[in-house]
Amino acid sequence: MVIVALDDTDSRERGMCTTYVGARLAERLAAAGGRVEQRLLVRLNPAVKHKTRGNAAVALHVDEIDADEAFEVAAVTVREFAVPVDPRTSPGLVVADVDPASIPSEVAAFSRRALRHRIALEEALSLADSRGYRHAAFGTGGAGDTDDVAGRGRIGALAAVGARAAFDDWTVEHISYRELDRCGTPREVDAESVFAAADAAYPTVWDTVDRGTGEVVCVPNAPGPILYGIRGDDAAACREVATSIESEPVARAETFLTNQGTDAHLAPGTIGDLRDGAGYRVDGVVATDPETKRGGHVHVDVADGGGDGPGDEGGGPGDAGGGPGDEDDGSGA
């Protein structure tokens, strides 16, 4: 078995996403004789500086193909579809010749740390090299900031390699992709059909619509190739909702096992003792009315309950799920 993982191939402005690159890669690995056993969409630390949107990577578990051939197919695919000219993008690839059931403990531990911490690229490369995993960087690594390096996505890719051994709580996201030449144009999705399908499948399928605002939240706003992403606890139910939606033509679709929507990235914390660059679960008193901002992020001020007044440490994490296909990175951890 080979695990092929990639991260940070996307662009917020130029219309690409890492799940799409993963979907095209899965097709090509299958065409080369491989059998894709599982597709993972692995949410990492959403509070890191270099993320593009939601900070997640993709891993493909592939049988009946050797690691060298898988690496070559993956490298060609990343070069074709990734957007390294975007200054926020630093694509990376890791290929591990390892059975997902036999992930080394230190790789699984790395994956868990990547969910809540910022990790240096050097640490990721040292670990990958020590296990004999092949890896590659693409592009120049950013806009020239002092901490911009080529192939930062290898952090997230390595974390995706170890994810199946690192995490126990998984959900599903079924993503339908539009034709590439439609990217940047308004998506044609019938909202009434989305609400009807969402109502029929709830609560097994969730995060599809916002019944409070009347908005369809499974359809992204960014100019990428995702048409809509259906999240839930059962793959068949997610696919059934997708087939019930009336829309422009669907070019391809993939179903990912994912840790999105599990809140696994939230560490226990105490107001007044929180560090930047992480997400927390805290006990406190909501001190202001909630404000929903672009992307569905809910911001509130939270007080520690001692009467000292609000602080903004609690603002932000109502966004455990992010938008559909919220798979993109910028640092990997």
Walkthrough of the structure:
This protein has 333 residues and is of the alpha+beta class. The chain contains 8 helices and 17 strands. The strands form 5 sheets. It has a 9-stranded mixed β-sheet with strand order 5-4-1-3-2-11-6-10-7, sandwiched between helices. Strands 8-9 form a two-stranded antiparallel sheet. Mean pLDDT is 87; it is low at 307-322 and 326-333.
Q: What is the helix fraction of residues, given as a range?
A: 10-25%
CATH class of the largest domain: Alpha Beta
Count of DSSP-assigned helices: 8
Low-confidence blocks of residues: 307-322, 326-333
Largest sheet: 9 strands, mixed
Mean pLDDT across the residues is 87
Rg, Cα atoms, Å: 19 Å
Q: Judging by the overall fold, what is the CATH architecture of the largest domain? A: 2-Layer Sandwich
Strand order of the largest sheet: 5-4-1-3-2-11-6-10-7
**How far from one another are the termini?**
25 Å
- Percent in strands: 15-25%
Number of domains: 3
SS class? alpha+beta
Number of strands: 17
Topology:
Layout: E1 2-7, H1 18-31, E2 35-43, E3 56-63, H2 67-81, E4 92-96, H3 105-114, H4 121-130, E5 134-137, H5 153-161, H6 163-166, E6 171-177, H7 191-201, E7 205-206, E8 209-210, E9 215-216, E10 226-232, H8 235-244, E11 252-258, E12 266-268, E13 279-281, E14 285-286, E15 291-292, E16 298-299, E17 302-303
Parallel strand pairs: 2-11, 12-13
Antiparallel strand pairs: 1-3, 1-4, 2-3, 4-5, 6-10, 6-11, 7-10, 8-9, 14-17, 15-16
